[in-house]
Amino acid sequence: MEFDNYKGKKFCNNTSFFVDDNLTVEKPLQIIINNQTFSITMRTPGHDEDLVRGLLYTEDIYREKKNLSIIFSEDKEKNISTAHLTINEKELGSGYKNSRNLLSVSSCGICGQKELTDTSQYTSMSVIQEDALDIKTFYKMFEVMNKEQPTFHQSGGSHAAAAFSKNSTLLCIREDIGRHNAVDKVIGHLVNNKKMNKVKCIIVSGRISYEIVSKIFAAKIPILGAVSAPSTLAVDFAKELGITLLGFCREKKATCYAHPQRIKNSV
To answer: Which end of the chain is more exposed for a tag (fewer CB within 10 A), N or C?
Structure first.
């Protein structure tokens, strides 16, 4: 299944209500070559054999014409799929030596929870109701970011990330062709200029995958919003790590999928 249903709290102008949304599934696929873990890649399940074959070819790991025998297994407890391959060492390309840094994939009870319920027992960041962000202020943040993207307005080919304080003051905005790079640039600027303690929210112009959630968590930023959709794993991790996550933030609308306690809807 390439999508799954999640509940969210949708803010629309001055009203809010609960919704059921279909989000694209994101899950890890571990690739093991000759009984040694080569990498873990995040993907939407489906056509995994094609994915593995293509990755091995493009990264110069295996470019022989003959087909590979790939055995797939599932670990439901850890929520991870594994592709097992046996390849003659003489046929391994130079890319095999450059194995990717491995991601530690482990989930506590919150991952896979579809309901928008109290998850405070898993929260790694404090949720202070009195310090909640007004949804109107949140809408304004996206209006500001949209105006401050010169590269995108000229080329249409870049992503943006922007950091704001609680009162919607823009602390930093950066553009890059890569979504993750834009976020890294913003966090780097905040660190270099000693402004991390002022950040209330980071918003991004594209979609949210689990990697972006992990970056926001590492920076201890409580609220993350995106113009487009989050993946299922992004929502799962946001719930587990205590991050308020909102998607589809455009035209004075936004849907919160994790920790809505930090968002208030004042009339």
So the answer is: C
